[in-house]
Amino acid sequence: MLGTLPRYLAELGHDVHCFFPLDGFIARISYQKGMDLLEATLPAVIRAGGQFILLGTGDPHYEHVFRELAAVLPADCCARIMFDAALAQRMYAGLDFMLIPSRYEPCGLTQMISMRYGTVPIVRETWGLADTVNNFDPTTGAGTGFSFGAYASLDFMGAITRAFELYRRPDEFGELVRQCMREDFSWRPSAREYDRLYRQMTVPG
Length: 205
Fold this sequence. Notes:
Blueprint: H1 8-11, E1 22-26, H2 35-47, E2 51-55, H3 60-72, E3 77-80, H4 85-94, E4 97-100, H5 110-117, E5 120-124, H6 127-132, E6 146-148, H7 153-167, H8 170-182, H9 187-202
């Protein structure tokens, strides 16, 4: 989160700069999750001032790719190729942005968990991600994250750039974080809608 120095980063041996946005990825390392897009974009993210932490396991090729990136860029990139639920929870609570460049995502939980913790999602507009993350509108201040349409590194980086620009305006970024945390993905809204539809169909015309 903005202005914090998460203690878990010390345990990872990761040197954090408080005024730079901290970005993360928590998921299966797989074709579906857009690993090629993440690989292509990550150097530009770091050049733009971001720091990055990856947590997950999966495709051996991409496990190796991100280990190598972390070795080449140790001050700004950290790869933990493992399953660690406690570390994942600390990351959800401590990141500024969650990167979710999926090729497709039937539903997805990462973006919803991120918002609950106040980590702003940056997502591709596909399936469940498009249904649950509203692209930030700088004119109105409305939104719950940043999204991009085409499966392309330039589009992904464009969304990240917009996110970083807002991060450097702390008051506006703080309001976006609060909007994320106010989102309700429980069954309460769905139950109310089911109840409304049921009553609409059963009330005599």
